[in-house]
Design goal:
The structure is a single chain. This protein has one domain: Farnesyl Diphosphate Synthase (Orthogonal Bundle). A hairpin with a 2-residue loop joins strand 1 and strand 2. By secondary structure, it is mostly helical. It is globular, with a radius of gyration of 20 Å. Strands 1-2 form a two-stranded antiparallel sheet. It is about 70% helix and about 0% strand.
Length: about 325
């Protein structure tokens, strides 16, 4: 199912968020405008901004405040991807050339910094100090998660608990903020704010787990990146950790980490695909979706709540 269908109650309002994002490309320095055109070309799902708007539907739905917040969430996400591409040395993302494939890494890092600054400018337009502090805290948590991932690359001593803590920081925290921030700006009750934060966090955990499953089981053409990309970068995810648990003494993951070879990477992907590891991983994702569903129970039953509920089902069904 297309996300645009699930966004129903806020689909038209997302056009304003997209307009804000596109306006950022209008700068009087051609090289910067060219780089911004690459990363803000449009066509993204706008999942995080949609969550912000949906969360705001349970209170005072003021688009003059919610649109800048939603744009800031998307810019924060996009800026982190720009930095990720430099770290990973990625030439493409979702089948499109990355900025660092055409410009120096140093320049690309500074582009990410520029976008972080723009994200901060957008969130400041809410005039809500609580949301501004939430934004700052989230950026710190995300960065801590990224640092942890970098420092543990090719380290086979990690556990599933380590993995969950890492994705909670680098991925789920922003989904939580997207929902919590929307509820705060809409002046909802503390009970609803916490419910939406909990929903967003668990949604984000499920989203990342599915993303990591697809890195083994997905179609390269649909995903826009090679299968096994995480292992290629030395990143342990849930499927690879489960594979190591089942074969503690002899598995291609540890061999690949000790001496990277393409055939070991291919063997790890094949072993995961031929076992019930994807199913076990999906079971964990479902458990986080169930927690997200449960968090919504305190909210009124209206189109926004139903959209949030259905989006968790989309997370489990997506293929890219």
């Amino acid at each position: 199912m297309k996300t645009s269908i699930l966004f129903g109650p806020v689909q038209e309002d997302l056009a304003r968020v997209e307009g804000t994002l596109q306006s950022i490309k209008q700068v009087d320095y051609a090289p910067l405008a060219e780089m911004l055109e690459v990363v803000l070309a449009g066509g993204g799902k706008l999942l995080r901004p949609a969550l912000t708007l949906l969360a705001g539907r349970f209170g005072e739905y003021n688009l003059d405040l919610l649109v800048p917040l939603a744009a800031s969430v998307e810019l924060l996400h996009t800026a982190s991807l720009v930095h990720d591409d430099v770290i990973d040395g990625a030439d493409t993302r979702r089948g499109r050339p990355t900025v660092n494939s055409a410009f120096h890494n140093t320049t690309t890092v500074m582009l990410g910094d520029y976008m972080f600054a723009h994200a901060a400018d957008q969130v400041a337009q809410t005039g809500n100090i609580r949301v501004i502090r939430l934004f700052s805290h989230t950026l710190m948590v995300m960065t801590k998660g990224e640092i942890g991932q970098d420092l543990t690359a090719y380290d086979s001593r990690q556990t599933v608990r380590d993995y969950l803590q890492r994705i909670g920081g680098k991925t789920a925290s922003l989904f939580a903020t997207a929902c919590q921030g929307g509820a705060v700006v809409a002046q909802e009750s503390e009970q609803w704010i916490e419910a939406l934060r909990t929903y967003g966090y668990n949604f984000g955990m499920a989203f990342q787990i599915v993303d990591d499953i697809l890195d083994f089981t997905g179609d390269e053409a649909e995903m826009g990146k090679p299968v096994g990309s995480d292992l290629l970068q030395g990143t342990l995810t849930l499927p690879s950790l489960l594979l190591m648990e089942r074969h503690p003494g002899d598995n291609p993951v540890q061999k690949h980490f000790a001496q990277p070879r393409q055939e070991l990477l291919a063997q790890a992907v094949e072993m995961v695909r031929e076992t019930d590891i994807p199913q076990e991983s999906y079971d964990m994702a479902r458990s986080f979706c169930a927690r997200a569903h449960e968090a919504l129970s305190v909210l009124p039953d209206d189109p926004a709540r139903r959209a949030l509920y259905d989006l968790t089902d989309y997370v489990l069904e997506r293929r890219s």
